[in-house]
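Just curious. Protein, please.
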Amino acid sequence: MSGDAGAGDRPLRARVEALRGELEATVARAAERERLPGVAWGVADRHGLVLAGATGRASLSPPLPADGRLVWRIASMTKSVTACCVLLLRDDGHLRLDDPVVGYVPGFGTSRLPTADSPPVTIRHLLTMSAGLVEDDPWADRQLAMDEAGLASLLRGGICFDTAPGVRFQYSNLGYALLGQVVRAASGMSLAAFARQRLFAPLGMAATTFDVAGLAPEARATGYHDDADARTPEPILADGVFGAMGGLGTTIPDFARYVAFHLDAWPPRDDPDPGPLARASRREMAQPWRPGPAWPAVTELTLEGYGFGWVVGRHARLGRVVAHSGGLPGFGSHVALLPDAGLGVMAFANRTYAPARALVAELVEQLAAAGVLDRAVGGTGAAGAPAPLLAAQAWLSDLYREWDRERARSLAAENLFRDKSEGTRAAELSALRNRHGVLREVGPLRPEGARRASWRLVCERGELAAWVWLVPSAGGAVQAYGFEVVEGG
């Protein structure tokens, strides 16, 4: 399968397609190593699906080959969809994120807060996993089919807190189930109906559904769990109130549209914003609003915290990462968006808690090693960079070649030679040039905003990473610059 959302970035798509064999081999090895019945995977850019594949079986009996066009349950990857629905209602003026939850879910008011000085639990607390509710993965994963009467009964019995609201991150599926009820109260529609009307239909996600149990067996992947030496199919869990935390089913082409929708929020820009959720709100979702726990590291990725339905972090070489895993009885999944590189990678597997995060990390590293992800921030190259940054890049690169006093003063801000004298700066550049040799090539500019950027200098004896900061006032004066040795370069 390949993208059906337009040509997009043709050179990028061609580079990804050239890696198909290597990526397929990585997925096949992971499936064998982890004893996964089947895996569907895909790569998307801001225009849609770029590349997809599958290996193994979506069903063992009757046999059904794995196929990304089948519906796979993506578990907690659902949470960003629920968050999108909340923000759509916020943007429409139907709720505020700092509203108390009890105003939308009155039954929640029977739960006693853990301390006398606890603040009311707000919608923002639920979105950012900071409501103080108990971490509940093992229990909540079996609650998908709970109906509204069951939730009302649960709330009447009182919900226990682990900490006071607003104190720290505590992963709560119940919190996202409550957000589903907030959407119902604010919109007058179930979360499933609201998401279908306001999100899935505008994005063309026709195969995406919360009612996975209602699909014909040949239209969906079957989930399995391993018990000793036996592999057993998991009963398909019906759609219920806990679907807001992890009940969604989707295909690789459909979810690629959703990934493209979020990638397209970057970088901030002036062109028309067709929605359905504003680009600014999508970027708001991808901020680390609540510091997370010490998640185990995968490759060079550092996780910084939880946003609105997304885990947010940074990759040492690839910039911003926006991701989420999913795990349910019978399924494991993961998606990683790399907005600064303009790509997203996803993998769905049909074994309980399959380690899809590690597989996605492997695929990302392969793409990076091949240079596919070596792109400027926001997917824009030098042609899209602000002119003052391009001028500063040329200025500093010229000074590396040869210090020229008049040239140096032409873009120096008033602080530059007060912070460190012209003579000292000239001597430092001379020593750098003596160590690394003649400048052979100036790499593409990597803007980090409108007033900061970095790029690489390929020298006779290794590579340097150069950077500049421009002043906040009008013009292109340089307030600071620097060079770092690129290890292995």
Summary: The radius of gyration is 25 Å. Residues 382-485 form a domain with the Nuclear Transport Factor 2; Chain: A, fold (CATH 3.10.450).
